[in-house]
Design a protein that fits this description.
Elements lengths: L9 H5 L12 H16 L2 H13 L16 H21 L7 H10 L2 H13 L7
Helix pairs in contact: 4-5
Length: 133
């Protein structure tokens, strides 16, 4: 485990944070990385969207999820159902396209029994759904 220092090294002050070797150990550079990294990743969002579309086109059934290694996939079903509706709610609030949420919908549709989905949809409509969406 790396320990963080409270001051930057002289090398850090001369080089940009991404080229600096101490950015992992320095609190100042760590904060800069949290600000700069999303800006650098912003350019790759187009390719990420294309990757998501390609995965959706090649989708057959729910892939292996290391969080749920056992045969019982009940929790996997529940998590993907919640993730889909959380994703949909968040993107609707931003006014963005819901296409990234489609993955969760396909996974929970392939894992969950239809009776569960119908029951949960009714509970959401009535306002008695037990999950946090």
């Amino acid at each position: 485990m790396l320990k963080f220092t409270s001051t930057c090294t002289s090398q850090c002050k001369l080089l940009p944070p991404l080229a600096c070797e101490c950015h992992v150990r320095c609190w100042k550079c760590e904060r800069l990385m949290k600000v700069l990294l999303p800006l650098l990743i912003k350019d790759t969002r187009v390719t990420m969207a294309e990757d998501i579309k390609a995965k959706l086109e090649n989708y057959r059934t729910a892939p292996f999820d290391a969080r749920f290694p056992n045969q019982n996939q009940t929790r996997n079903c529940w998590s993907n159902y919640l993730d889909y509706h959380r994703c949909q709610k968040a993107l609707d609030a931003k006014g963005a396209d819901n296409a990234p949420c489609e993955w969760y919908r396909r996974v929970y549709k392939s894992l969950c029994p239809m009776s569960w989905i119908q029951k949960w949809d009714e509970q959401r409509a009535e306002g008695t759904f037990p999950g946090k969406i």
